[in-house]
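Re: weekly structure request thread

Next one in the queue (81 aa):
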Amino acid sequence: MSIENVEVIRRFEDSFAAGDIDGVLATLADDVVVHECDSVPYPGDHRGKDAFLGLLETFVATWELEDYWDTHAMVEATTAP
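Done, posted below.
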């Protein structure tokens, strides 16, 4: 993963942890597509920022993230060499 991509992920993560939805959306393309597997409560393809917001609402309602480190650990796990 390039340094530029890691920085985008960090901006996304920091905005998410701070509850800054505008900051989260600023990291996404207008035609963002999030693919979720069938085994989660929000399966399928979520296309566009409005669909992403719906996914985010479901994600937050589903998972009990205690603090910043929960999301930080998820990103670190996917970007480690």
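The domain at 3-79 is CATH 3.10.450.50 (Nuclear Transport Factor 2; Chain: A,). Confidence is low (pLDDT under 50) at residues 69-79.
Next request, please.
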